[in-house]
TrEMBL record:
Record family assignment: Belongs to the arsA ATPase family.
Residue stretches making up the ArsA/GET3 Anion-transporting ATPase-like domain: 10-291
Record-linked CDD domains: ArsA
Name this polypeptide is given: Arsenite-activated ATPase ArsA
MF-aspect GO terms: ATP binding; ATP hydrolysis activity
Coiled-coil region(s): none
Origin organism lineage: unclassified sequences, metagenomes, ecological metagenomes
Pfam family, one: ArsA_ATPase
Species, as recorded: mine drainage metagenome
């Protein structure tokens, strides 16, 4: 897999909903962990199902995956992150400022903007926390669908510039006076994202015109903010062998190959991997481990044989 060759510290998987980002990010995490690497898998999707994939509760704290040595995971919960963020801002000033001032700050921090910025705040901490980064060989991000991801990755530059231009103002970040530390952290996050030695973006698509068009737009928008090291993975491609004796499968195969052959020009120079469609559900470590192999079947499930009805011959 080209997208896993000489991987940098940060790997981002993005693409339209339903293209297999979570399966790919989880399979990549398992693959690297089994090479002896220490991996942190982070979901920034509010609808994350990483816990379901590993059959383990994860949540908004770093949790070791019990079935894979060296792999931990974290699901950023926007609502919980927002509550913790508000408390970090308001807690220190309770009792130190008049009640009406504290109430004003709380109201200022009650909107959807604060929820977004709180999740983003946790995200930037993962990019800039030297102690955390030193603990892991690779940090893999399973992101929300494309539009949310683009906004998330654009925010470090946007907020860094906003704080610089409005040092005495206020926003859903809280009162901005004295937030030089945040500005520095967001600037560091921008540097990490735009450094090809530290960050790689994996654009995930299906062999369909609509998803290839969407990742082409994402490629251009994210390249414009400095994320230049990008790979393309076309997931779930129907193997030619499946189309030999089935007219419907043959039609699907032709349509997919046409979509790949006519993909947007901006994608054609990107390193490309194609992953074949699997005939089983990609849930569980063994199934995910087979995603990058030529195996057509997941590990067998052992089911007890039913009891023989009375009176029937053996």
């Amino acid at each position: 897999m080209l997208f896993l060759q000489n991987p940098p510290t940060f790997l981002f998987f993005t693409g339209k909903g339903g293209v297999g980002k979570t399966s790919l990010s989880c399979a990549s995490a398992i693959h690297l962990a089994r090479q002896g690497k220490k991996i942190l898998l982070v979901s920034t999707d509010p609808a994350s199902n990483v816990g379901q994939v590993f059959s383990q509760e994860i949540g908004n704290k770093i949790t070791a995956i019990s079935t894979v040595a060296g792999l931990s995971a974290l699901e950023i919960d926007p609502q919980q992150a927002a509550q913790q963020y508000r408390e970090r801002i308001v807690g220190p000033v309770r009792g130190a400022l008049p009640d009406d001032v504290v109430k004003g700050i709380e109201e200022q921090l009650s909107g959807a903007c604060t929820t977004e910025i709180a999740a983003f705040d946790e995200f930037t901490a993962l990019l800039t926390d030297a102690t955390l980064i030193a603990d892991y060989d690779h940090i893999i991000f399973d992101t929300a669908p494309t539009g949310h991801t683009i906004r998330l990755l654009q925010l470090p530059g946007a907020w860094s510039g906003f704080i610089e231009k409005n040092p005495e103002g206020a926003s859903c970040l809280g009162p901005l006076a004295g937030l030089e530390k945040q500005r520095q952290r967001y600037a560091e996050a921008v540097k990490a994202l735009s450094d090809p030695e530290r960050t790689r973006l994996i654009l995930v698509a299906r062999a369909q015109k609509t998803t290839l068009d969407e990742v082409a737009r994402a490629h251009e928008e994210l390249a414009a903010i400095g994320l230049s090291r990008q790979n393309l993975v076309i997931n779930g491609v129907l193997p030619e062998s499946e189309a030999v004796h089935d007219a419907l499968a043959a039609a699907i195969h032709r349509r997919e190959q046409a979509a790949i052959a006519n993909m947007p020009a901006v994608l054609r120079d990107l390193p490309l991997d194609q992953l074949p469609l699997k005939a089983f559900n990609l849930v569980g470590v063994e199934a995910l481990s087979s995603l990058f192999s030529d195996r057509d079947e997941a590990a067998p499930v052992v089911v007890d044989a039913p009891a023989k009805p009375v009176g029937l011959p053996p």
